[in-house]
Amino acid sequence: MEHPERPLALTIGDPAGIGPDITLFAWQARARGRIPPFALLGDPGVIAARAEALGIDVPIETVAEVEVAPALFARALPVLPVPIAGPVVPGHADRSAAPAVQEAIERAVNLVQQGAARAIVTNPIAKAVLHGAGFPFPGHTEFLASLAARGGTPVHPVMMLASPALRVVPVTIHVPLKDVPGLLTSDLILATIEITARDLGRYFGLNRPRLAVAGLNPHAGEEGSLGQEESEIIAPAIAAARAKGLDVTGPHPADTLFHARARAGYDAAICMYHDQALVPFKTIAFEEGVNVTLGLPFVRTSPDHGTAFALAGTGKASPRSLIEALRLAAAMSDRAEALA
Questions:
Q1: pTM for the full model?
Q2: Domain at 241, CATH number
Q3: Kind of pairing, strands 77-81 and 247-252?
Q4: What phi and psi values does residue 215 have, to the nearest 5 degrees?
Q5: Contact 7, 69 (CB under 8 A)
Q6: 60 neighbors 76 (Cβ within 8 angstroms)
Q7: What distance in Å separates the CA atoms of residue 7 and residue 317, rounded to the nearest whole number?
Q8: Same domain, 247 and 272
Q9: Same domain, 60 and 75
Q10: What is the tens place of the pLDDT at every residue in 74-127?
Q11: Exposure class string for 257-296: b at 16+ Cβ within 10 A, else e
């Protein structure tokens, strides 16, 4: 692994979910796979208690500086302490943990902005729990964009789900389905296409990626008989992207965009709303999928699943998606640094 002196910053996510479990399992897998060194931002006591509940032996080393994590990683799980108020019971979410969950994310962003960490990997959060504690953002993606923009430069975050079999990008994300048509604009779609194309080159080595854009309506509007969004909003965005030299096709009917032969014809699919992208993606790549936030001035990945409270502390949670997120974050940061 290149740049071993700079670890990944991994946030704990909701401590009552499977974040602690899969973090422990991922550290255990370091000798069996190419796991880049990481430091966990979380409560050492919670991690130790979860290891005990799972019946696994994981040495935990509390550290004051993230830079020391790589030297410790082979023999102990490095933890930058972020204390959690109140008890943490696996499977039982509690709003009292929300400030620590948010602080871990903020500190991870600070570390990568300062150059102490090479990228951020985030364990799953429980949005409803955070919202109940006053968290004003729809999710991780929007919160990270707000933190990245603190210097005054606007940030347009783009969520991409990535796996070896499929990459998908929803133009609208955490909004009610009924609001999607009113939120879609040609400018928004064009910006999403441009950011996706740019970052697929920056982080994935695809210098002229092939992007397939889905329609909004059944059969991509059926030439206007099932809706006008394709001709009035989506097609103009595609035309503008092509005028900028991007390799973009569409709008395609979404129901024929994700079978194997169709996927062979593009590098990423641009979708109009959350489930249009995530349903096929999770059907095809549920365990190995990774959530990537494009458009940020730093690398951020996450497992492509939620907190899975029912599995917390049972030993049944799979660390595969987290491991893939760690590996992808390292590969993306390697490529970005090589181009710098």
A1: 0.93
A2: 3.40.718.10
A3: unpaired
A4: -80, 175
A5: yes
A6: yes
A7: 24
A8: yes
A9: yes
A10: 999 999 999 998 889 999 988 999 999 999 999 999 999 999 999 999 999 988
A11: bbeeeebeebbbbbbbbbebbbebbbebbeebbbbbbbbb
